[in-house]
Amino acid sequence: MLEIGQIKKVYFLGIGGIGMSGLALFLLKQGKQVFGYDLTPSTVTQSLSDQGAVIHYTEDIEAIPAGIDLVVLTPAIPKSHKELIYFQENRIPIVKRSELLGIICKGFPVVAVSGSHGKTTTTSMTTHLLHSISHPTLAFIGGISQNLGSNLLYDADYQTIVVEADEFDRSFLTLYPRIGVITSMDADHLDVYGDLSHMIAAFQEFTNQIDRTGALVIHQSVAHLIEHPNKITYGDTEDADFYFQIDHETPVETQFSICKKMEDGDPVCFHNLKMKSTGFHNLLNGLAAFLAVKELLGLKMDSENRADFQSIFDSFETWQGVKRRFEYRIKSDNLVYIDDYAHQPQELEAIINAVKKIYSSEKVVGVFQPHLYTRTRDFLHEFAEALALLDEVILLDIYPARELPIEGITSDYLLQLVENPNKIKLSKQELVPYLVNRKPKVLITMGAGDIGVLVPEIEKALKSL
Fold first, then answer.
1. Is 211 exposed, middle or buried (0-12, 13-18, 19+ CB in 10 A)?
2. Mean pLDDT calculated for residue range 246-252
3. Do 278 and 181 share a structural domain?
4. What confidence category does residue 245 fall into, taking pLDDT thresholds of 50, 70 and 90?
5. How many structural domains compose the chain?
6. For a pLDDT cut of 70, what percent of the chain falls above it?
7. Is the domain of 73 the same as that of 111?
């Protein structure tokens, strides 16, 4: 197997992706020479360039330097890409992003966070908890941590690796973690799996690769679907091994308790914990992160040892979130603007309900850019039901990513299915002028496509009102 020490000069095809850029940054910090291609410049590619990566933005084999040891490939690159063909014809080793991640993780205790949603926030929280207690950590996060300002935590003397374990294309099967986390298993990536049962089978295969002396931390709603000898369930009800209780909640802070179910008596609960964020989903993800850290460090929870956990509990209060995950862009008396990466029906429902709960007296306007034709086709009615929860629905065209259009699958058709009289389909060019004229009191933008590029423009326009 290829070893990191053997790599000197690496080329990334699709270097600007959130997963690819984290790997590129890691290799730069390891003293490797990093080169790459991406379709368009971004803040991510600029940051990599500032730290020494050489990046270009056209398909040009003349821009490829001599002596490349390894090519790292993202699934977004088409097979017809000129540079990919060049590397294939010249027999230069090519690995998927997930394969390189597996190579990096070899020989280290790994915390791998998986799930069809919630994994980026949970990975960020796990990373933050370990970093806050000075546990030497290397972490690859599927988003930009607000605490780190990066998708990578790199302690040069790292002893543990935290990774976001992506189920797309069965990528997480390159990992052999000590602690595995499954936050959810809602149907997704059916273009890869065909149906939910095959997706669950892949999660079981991932679970089978968890160290038998380690642990599986899994949400109580899906725990019955997965087998592991040390399965720890979490959730918000007393049926779970560990659960949380909300003690008090405001738009800027949540006070909560973490409880452990006891077989022969009252639960053990640690009270008066605080998180500078709101939302049911953040508490779930925080609990999963806490359990992952607890199991990694071999800590036991009983009524007498709160002091063993206090530094971890204190870290909850300093966690600042992840960019594009329930991210407040504007929070004032006259306007609230929240941006989120939500791109599945369950995620849309979660954020819409959370925002409506916090701002119950205001009308909530939501902008959604569907991501992938296949996902939109597979969950048309679920998307329509989730969007109907909004007071006003604004749809953008479907973001295709790696896909070609599917006949009949359009945002116009999805909009027809939304049972809400206050709905409209707009182009990206029409969106900002519409919002300026509309002057919403509470706005959410949602989607995993290039809607994120519009967010600063929307923020600037609304702040000028």
1. middle
2. 85
3. yes
4. very high
5. 3
6. 100
7. no
Q: Which residues contact 323 (CB under 8 A, 6 or more apart)?
A: 143, 144, 145, 146
Is the CB of residue 15 less than 8 Å from the CB of residue 53?
A: yes
Report the alpha-carbon distance of residue 345 to residue 87 in Å, rounded.
39
Asked whether residue 418 is domain-assigned, the answer is yes
Calpha distance 451→392 (Å, rounded): 18
Question: Could you tell me if 57 and 164 lie in one domain?
Answer: no
Handedness of CA 189, 191, 197, 200 (dihedral sign): negative
Whether 304 and 333 share a structural domain: no
- pLDDT per position as a tens digit, 263-314: 887 899 999 999 987 778 899 999 999 999 999 999 998 877 888 899 999 9
* pLDDT given for residue 168 in this prediction: 82
Nearest of 115, 126, 321 to residue 219 by alpha carbon: 115
Q: Tell me which residue has tokens 């390891």.
A: 30
Q: Is 148 helix (H, G, I), strand (E, B) or coil?
A: coil
Q: Which residue has the tokens 């910090």?
A: 29
403 confidence band (pLDDT: 50, 70, 90): confident
Are 372 and 447 within 8 A, CB to CB?
no
Point out the domain boundary residue: 63, 95, 127. Answer: 95
Rounded alpha-carbon distances, angstroms, from residue 201 to 13, 162, 204, 221, 233: 30, 23, 5, 16, 19
Identify the H or E element spanning 269: strand 268-275
Global pTM exceeds 0.70: yes
Task: Tell me what the mean pLDDT of segment 169-185 comes to.
Answer: 94
Mean pLDDT of 327-338: 93
Task: Give the residue among 30, 108, 40, 42 at the shortest CA–CA distance from 70.
Answer: 30
- The residue whose two tokens read 């949603």 is 117
Identify any residues that bridge with 163 across adjacent strands, giving them in sequence order.
112, 140
Q: Single out the residue in 271, 291, 318 at which a domain terminates.
A: 318
Q: Please tell me whether residue 114 adopts helix, strand or coil conformation.
A: strand
Half-sphere exposure of 227 (CA within 13 A, CB side): 2
* Same structural domain, 236 and 192: yes
pLDDT, tens digit, 9 for 90 and up, residues 432-463: 999 999 999 999 999 988 899 899 999 999 99
Q: What phi-psi label fits residue 21: left (phi over 0), alpha (psi between -120 and 50 degrees) or beta?
A: alpha
| Secondary structure (3-state) at 237 | coil
Q: Which of 354, 409, 359 is nearest to 384 (CA)?
A: 409
